[in-house]
Known about the structure:
The structure is a homodimer. Chain A is mainly alpha-helical. Chain A is 52% helix and 6% strand. The first copy, chain A, is built from 6 helices and 2 strands, in the order H-H-H-E-E-H-H-H. The model of chain A has no long low-confidence stretch (mean pLDDT 93). Chain A binds chain B through residues 1-6, 9-10, 12-13, 34-36, 80, 84, 87-91, 93-94, 97, 100-101, 106-107, 110-111, 113-114, 117-118, 121-122, 125, 130, 132, and chain B through 1-6, 9-10, 12-13, 34-36, 80, 84, 87-91, 93-94, 97, 100-101, 106-107, 110-111, 113-114, 117-118, 121-122, 125, 130, 132.
Amino acid sequence: MKLITRDTDYALRAICKIAKEKGKVLSVKELTGLTKVPGPYLRKILQRLNKAGVLISHKGTGGGFKLARGKVNTRLFDLIVIFQGHFKLNECFFKKEKCPDTGTCPLKKRIDKIEKNVIKELKEITIASLLR
Amino acid sequence: MKLITRDTDYALRAICKIAKEKGKVLSVKELTGLTKVPGPYLRKILQRLNKAGVLISHKGTGGGFKLARGKVNTRLFDLIVIFQGHFKLNECFFKKEKCPDTGTCPLKKRIDKIEKNVIKELKEITIASLLR
DNA sequence: AACAAATGATACTATTATGGTATCATTAAC
DNA sequence: GTTAATGATACCATAATAGTATCATTTGTT
Lengths: 132, 132
């Protein structure tokens, strides 16, 4: 029922803080202060964002994370995919076994429609749009 | 990320089967056959639906469950509330502690909007509409 | 009256996902 | 070379989920 997990939420918060400091490199320590997210956990999140290309990391003294080029346009949808995997509101609970309603299931279509709308809206929420 | 849990899904399936047999009382055993949902688990679900007033149970030999009067108009939204509790896509992860972005959080509004739409659509999905 | 067939209520268990910590390796600045 | 940072991973605790088991109660049948 949660659209967004804690990971995603914290990631979003951190990225916003980073984005506000145009180009400046912020360390985990600084970001912990700004976001109140527990250090080691935040660090893991930032590492994932680095791997995903949203942030760029700098090692060594004075190191930290900054926003990668053009990534103010990262969408909430992208973050959800990074932290929560492929977006699907609608997955039949009869996975391997065959669902007794295969073919006739009227629910799928209805939820697909909802899903489509939600995805559209999640793609409209960009970092840039949140900073304004 | 799941809009619907297994409980809710199974409940919906069972109710649909029951609704198709207008007024007839169906036992857990019969419903297990129809839905392929494990017996004891299904039973627990049906009991909750009875408590919630969606179904009416009959004890003793030949007993089982039937749909309560007017409850073909039960909405998927209602079932979600019964099995998953109060519907909220958007809950700040800083619950007791104060969120560092209180007041300025721009995300809340955006997700509230999504939530509103989703709720509207979930309220349009009724048992009756799924039977057609 | 006895028995069987059903649900009511509840306690228990196993598995998985989530949230978070800890540690050692690596890199870079001074 | 030392220190301050991230990279990579392994680990752990808690909670939620999915499901089982059991005993009590009710009701129909003989």
